[in-house]
């Protein structure tokens, strides 16, 4: 499995494209604006078809390109139902962002939940619910690849903001301790913004939530 990190959109939100050329399949994690322009040539080069889009949470910067991805590829969408209003009626975010947002609604084919397990690209996948930044924030953990895609719950040396509707630092801290810091310390953490880190590094040095 190959991992492509694709920052895109107005605030450089990370999308992650996972490709399995031997299977001819690929999965995209989050869809910031314009990311299809980066995704398409990789799919063509590696001769892969995008089968699924996994959304970590419903905030606009992670979903602005989702409708286009679905139109272009027919990919099935996974997300957590606590973010259903953000995904199906994204205009609700304009009030708390204080600006007009060009975000199309996106339909979800599979609502995922805490502890759900499934297989994709020949890899086992575990879903963990990590609210606090956003009610429906989830992480997707691929144990064989030692990788967790955590949305905006945890960053290298920081944590997600909790001042938006549905945010709570107390909830986020609990989520990080119970759902992220319980992963193996060598697990690579791929956040919604910025550089990747590891569970062990954040447990040892994160100034907001220590291990």
Give the distance, in angstroms, between the N- and C-terminal Cα atoms. 30 Å
The helix/strand class is: alpha/beta
pLDDT averaged over residues:
94
What is the CATH C-level name?
Alpha Beta
Number of domains: 1
Remind me, CATH topology?
Metallo-beta-lactamase, Chain A
CATH architecture: 4-Layer Sandwich
What string, H for helix and E for strand, traces the elements in order?
EEEHEHHEHHEEEEEEEHEEH
Strand content: 25-35%
Largest sheet: 6 strands, mixed
The amount of helix comes to 25-40%
Assigned CATH superfamily: Ribonuclease Z/Hydroxyacylglutathione hydrolase-like
Rough shape? globular
Features:
6-stranded mixed sheet; 14 strands; alpha/beta; Metallo-beta-lactamase, Chain A
Can you tell me about this structure?
InterPro entries: MBL_Glyoxalase_II, Metallo-B-lactamas, RibonucZ/Hydroxyglut_hydro. Residues 12-193 form the Metallo-beta-lactamase domain. GO terms for molecular function: hydrolase activity; metal ion binding. The chain has seven helices and 14 strands. It is of the alpha/beta class. The strands form three sheets. Strands 1-2-3-4-5-6 form a six-stranded mixed beta sheet, covered by helices on one side. A six-stranded mixed beta sheet has the order 7-8-9-10-13-14. The chain is globular and about 40 Å long. The two termini are 30 Å apart.
